Amino acid sequence: MKTKSKRIVILTTLIFTLGTVTAFGESLWGSYEGYSKARVFINDNQINVPQDDVPAFIINGRTVLPLRLLAESLQATVSWDNKTQTAKIYKPNIHMFVSLDVDKDYTIKKPFGKVAHGETRNFVVSTQVDTLKMKPSGFKITIEAPNGELATDAVEVPLEESSESFWYTWPFKVSFTQAGNYTVNFSLLVNGEYTVVSKKTIVSE
């Protein structure tokens, strides 16, 4: 949320058995409210906690951190009902396809994941959405260059009546002037904020 009064302060205990999430505890990273801070990684990417937020910390041998940070790191949305003191996490099933073209029946033509550095290419981003349990008011598709800036204009689409599943395709033209990873982001607009729920990488080399 944009203000502290709206920020979810629920903490969740992480008890993972898979190796994709790693936490380092004890007193290596300092302390918070008398508890040892921890660092948390998801798929080798560290969850970065803002300075004014509650950090990850260790309590009774378990790693605890703000629920919103965890949900967004897992590309899920989270909502908070203050009246019922209830948080809800939604993880829709979203697939993105990058291709040179797509038929009217959504058949993907010539998908690709790499381009030549310096090439300017016209292509289509196709998005298949299902298991959409929340009711977003819209979505957005952005393409970020390796330096983090937008490689082309974002596409924002309102959703007046959303269903649990839909397809969406949109043409883009991008000049791959930088070497590295270009990231296609699909974000849902929930409660006035966009949350990235799917990513696709195009490698420029």
Description:
By secondary structure, this protein is mainly β. It has two domains: 4-90, no CATH class; 93-204, Immunoglobulin-like (Sandwich), CATH 2.60.40. 3% of the residues lie in helices and 52% in strands. The chain has one helix and 19 strands. It has one helix at 67-73; strands spanning 11-14, 21-24, 31-32, 35-36, 39-42, 45-46, 57-59, 62-66, 77-81, 86-90, 93-102, 108-111, 114-115, 120-130, 138-144, 155-158, 166-175, 180-190, 193-204. The strands form six sheets. It has a five-stranded mixed beta sheet with strand order 13-19-18-15-16, with no helix packed on it. A four-stranded antiparallel beta sheet has the order 12-11-14-17, with no helix packed on it. Strands 1-8-7 form a three-stranded antiparallel beta sheet. The longest helix has 7 residues, at 67-73. It is globular, with a radius of gyration of 19 Å. Mean pLDDT is 84; it is low at 1-20.
Features:
mainly beta, five-stranded mixed beta sheet, disordered N terminus, Cu_amine_oxidase-like_N, Mao_N_sf
